[in-house]
Amino acid sequence: MCPPRAVTVRFRRLDARDRTARLALFARLEPEARRARWLAASDAAAPPEPALALGAFCGPRLVGVGELYPWTEAAAGELALAVDPVFRRRGIGRALLERAAALARNRFWRALFAFCAADNAAVLALVRRCGARLRLEPPEAYAIVPLLSPTPATFALEFLDLAELWRERLRPPAATAPFPGIARPR
Description:
The protein has five helices and seven strands. The chain has one domain (10-166): Gcn5-related N-acetyltransferase (GNAT) (Aminopeptidase, 3-Layer(aba) Sandwich). A hairpin with a 2-residue loop joins strand 6 and strand 7 (140-146). By secondary structure, it is of the alpha+beta class.
């Protein structure tokens, strides 16, 4: 069943406590999407841990992830995206790419590299719209997204995603009162 188009999607940074949700998202990807994502048949049981990750949430469910893997020899890194099949074609991948680019810019990276299957038309179109230079070498494709210097707007966007994580982690459970024996005000 496909959710309505007007579903609210929240974005926030991911941390180690989100590993189970990441693995569940990867498990929901169809085999063809896994091949296009990892360039191999993969069960996604043990994907590498990213240095930085962002998530898109529909309610409590993780529906998209953008991951950054820095390269030690250059001011650059690899970008990896995955969006739940039910939530595709809603702008989630583009929002994750823009937020990941802001994170990379704030770390003074000069470029993001994306690797995918040459027949992954959705990702190739997405990175092309973001100004990437493409190199097709079937069965693989390489995209280089040049990055500008950071701006106050990129720092603000990163702060908003991090603040959403803090808000979620510091919020008391909804079922409990702030103090034992005292009801929650309405």
